[in-house]
Fold this sequence. Notes:
Elements: H1 2-8, H2 12-17, H3 25-28, H4 31-34, H5 38-51, H6 59-70, H7 74-80, H8 89-103, H9 121-177
Helix pairs in contact: 5-6, 5-7, 5-9, 6-7, 8-9
Amino acid sequence: MRQLLKKYLPDQQTIHANRWLRPFASTLLHPRLWHLNRRSAAGAVAVGMFCGLIPGPMQMIGAAACALLFRINLPLALLVTLYTNPLTIVPLYVLAYQIGRLIIADSSGFVAPPAFDPTSFVGWTTAMQGWMITAAKPLGIGLVILAASLSAIGYLLTKTAWRIYLVRAWQRRKLKKR
């Protein structure tokens, strides 16, 4: 499994050769950030799944910071954040909003955002702020719960898949020795 993942992930030399990342080379080239084993891969998947739900362009920055902090595989953590994309982000955020509504026992239903009114921009802005404040609490709670759940599921599935792969490899080796 290690060879399969290494085929698609960048290596240390790529980072070392990048002129924009060269000032951070001492931190980014730490061996544990590039080592790929069962623990580092599972941790990287968990971090990537969690940080993938961070709004905006901060997903990869968050994943990189967590990878540096926890000393897990950096390229895999960054790669896993890509599960959120323009096609998946809206359904995930709607799911997070519904989870948040369920947790805080909000039975008001989905409230549509106010329609844009170019003649009364200030009024529309005020209405939009009110709508965002009412949607923020269930969305924020739901995002944290969904991110933690996806992170835990990703961690466990990675550990399990790696373990199954290892057991099968051991069995194949055992059969070859006979």
